[in-house]
Design brief:
Radius of gyration: 26 Å
Shape: flat
Helix content: 25-40%
Largest sheet: none
Structural class: mainly alpha
């Protein structure tokens, strides 16, 4: 933010003059079939420090 403020001061501009925001649609890749298997669950042990 400090760099942006310095650029605005040097160029006598506003942040809107320096940054242009555009929106572009993105495509989500979908699979036709699900051939993978679900991951197997793993047991975990929660270890807590003594005195709690």
């Amino acid at each position: 933010m400090d760099t942006l403020a310095a650029l605005c001061d040097i160029l006598d501009a506003t942040p809107n003059d320096l940054i242009e925001i555009t929106s572009e649609p993105t495509q989500i890749r979908k699979t036709a079939t699900s051939t993978g298997t679900a991951p197997t669950p793993r047991r975990t042990t929660i270890r807590r420090p003594d005195g709690l």
